[in-house]
Automatic annotation (TrEMBL):
Substrate binds at residues 33-36, 224. The lineage of its organism: Bacteria, Bacillati, Actinomycetota, Actinomycetes, Kitasatosporales. HAMAP family: Galactokinase. Pfam families: GalKase_gal_bdg, GHMP_kinases_C, GHMP_kinases_N. Belongs to the GHMP kinase family. GalK subfamily. Catalyzes the transfer of the gamma-phosphate of ATP to D-galactose to form alpha-D-galactose-1-phosphate (Gal-1-P). This is Galactokinase. It is found in: Cytoplasm. It comes from Streptomyces humidus. It is an enzyme of class 2 (transferase). Residues 9-57 form the Galactokinase N-terminal domain. Pathway: Carbohydrate metabolism; galactose metabolism.
Length: 385
């Protein structure tokens, strides 16, 4: 939905022009999965799909929230009554951001908010981070808070971890807040240092497809938290702050030290090799060589997520296996896993046949048709008007 439509929706609801309209994108992650809560490396880029918010300030301690995507009316909340894990509805994301800003001492006195999003929800494409970041950016501008993107991302993560109650890392919010058009974001999740890496696939005759399996994942549910706890156990057993501190060259020695902790060994192996894969992809892209060489690294990442980290599922494996069997250069699940989306790197000339093959495989398996679209690295959060 465009800025104008969201502006008009605001006027209909609240009877006045909004003070401004902002947008924040969803993301795909090119490589670096389940590394962000291990202080490791990630490399997401922003999608053209965005959450858009029309917002005005209030001074009376009231927060009014409305979503054009839901049939739920206007929610009216009092700022002094906002409390973590208050209700579990969609309003927890924007309300959590207001709560996190105020907790950090920022003078937010109320707002009217009207939201609409084109980021597919439940697809592992960070629709919730987009919602959080667009609200954070709007309030940052309106209340002249002067916070940089990385700090807004931290506050949004706190909203999601504490207020919504999902123990996620920092990747999605940082991607939404900080990505730049035409680039992937190489992010060190330990200190949030960033590097924009140019990524122009079309110039090399390549495409990156997103295949949304339409199987819903629930990463606030137990499995995500279990993996996270397993990684923390691994770090504790190895005497490091985070698995990021295990160098790739020391992996075998670290695994040997874990003895018969089979599950922890698998988790550690994934995280340490995945960090290495991110560095490999960065080196390949920065060398200016053939981007096709990235393909096998993506595929190796998938195998590691499937076999070692065990967060894939039959539908994601079906996308990856079918795409590879039909000429893809590389393919992997993206995001938290347990459903959601896979990405496929392919020659532009193979896209049509490959898409048909994936659709046919889903039909043959009796699955709902997947949603397939091309992902072009797009802009991060911004003011539209
Ligand atoms: C979800 C979380 C992120 C990250 C990914 C896995 O998207 O929100 O913080 O952990 O899963 O890489």
């Amino acid at each position: 939905m465009g800025a104008q439509e969201v502006r008009e929706g605001f006027v209909r609801l609240y009877g006045a022009e909004p003070e401004g309209v902002w947008a924040a994108p969803g993301r795909v992650n090119l490589i670096g999965e389940h590394t962000d809560y291990n202080d490791g490396f990630v490399m997401p880029f922003a999608l053209p799909h965005t959450a858009v918010a029309a917002v005005s300030r209030r001074t009376d301690g009231v927060l009014r929230l409305h979503s054009a995507d839901l049939d739920a009316g206007v929610a009216e909340l009092r700022l002094d009554e906002l409390a973590p894990e208050s209700d579990g509805s969609w309003t927890a994301y924007p309300a959590g951001v207001v709560w996190a800003l105020r907790e950090a001492g920022h003078p937010v006195t109320g707002a009217d908010v009207h939201l609409a999003s084109t980021v597919p929800s439940g697809a592992g494409l960070s629709s919730s981070a987009a919602l959080e970041v667009v609200v954070a950016l709007a309030l940052n501008d309106l209340f002249a808070l002067g916070l940089p993107g990385w700090q807004l991302a931290r506050l949004c993560q706190r909203a999601e971890n504490v207020y919504v109650g999902a123990p996620t890392g920092i990747m999605d919010q940082t991607a939404s807040a900080c990505c730049e058009s035409g680039h992937a974001l190489f992010l060190d999740t330990r200190d949030l240092s960033q590097k924009q890496i140019p990524l122009d696939l079309a110039a090399e005759g390549l495409r990156l497809l997103v295949v949304d399996t339409q199987v819903t994942h629930a990463h606030s549910g137990g499995e995500y938290g279990k993996r996270r706890a397993g990684c923390e156990k691994g770090a504790a057993l190895l005497g490091v702050d985070a698995l990021r501190d295990i160098a790739y060259a020391d992996l075998d020695a670290a695994l040997a030290r874990l003895g018969d902790e089979e599950e922890v060994r698998r988790l550690v192996r994934h995280v340490v090799t995945e960090d290495q894969r991110v560095e490999q992809v960065v080196a390949l892209l920065e060398s200016g060589g053939d981007t096709r060489a990235v393909g096998p690294v993506l595929t190796a990442g998938h195998a590691s997520l499937r076999d070692d980290f065990r967060v894939s599922c039959p539908e994601l494996d079906l996308v990856v296996d079918t795409a590879l069997a039909h000429g893809a250069l590389g393919a992997r699940m993206t995001g938290g896993g347990f459903g959601g989306s896979a990405i496929v790197l392919a020659e532009a000339t193979d896209v049509e046949a490959l898409t048909k093959a994936v659709e046919a495989a889903f039909a043959a398996a009796g699955l709902k048709a997947p949603r397939v679209f091309e992902a072009v690295p797009s802009a991060g959060a911004r003011r539209l008007s």
